[in-house]
Amino acid sequence: MRLITGETELSTDRPSAITLGKFDGLHRGHRKLVSEVLKAGKEGLETAIFTFSSPPKAFMKGEDQSVLLTSREKRIHIERLGIELLVEYPFTEAVCHMEPEIFVKQVLADGLKARKIITGPDFCFGYRRRGNVELLSSLSDVYGYELVVMEKERDTSGRVISSTLIREELGRGHVEQANGLLGYPYTVTGEVVHGNHLGRTFGMPTINQIPAKEKLLPPNGVYTAAVEIGGKTYRGVSNVGYKPTIEGNYPKGVETYIFDFDRDLYGKTLDVQLFRYQRKEQKFASVEELKAQLIRDVKESRRFFRL
Question: Is the pTM of this model over 0.70?
Answer without folding.
Answer: yes
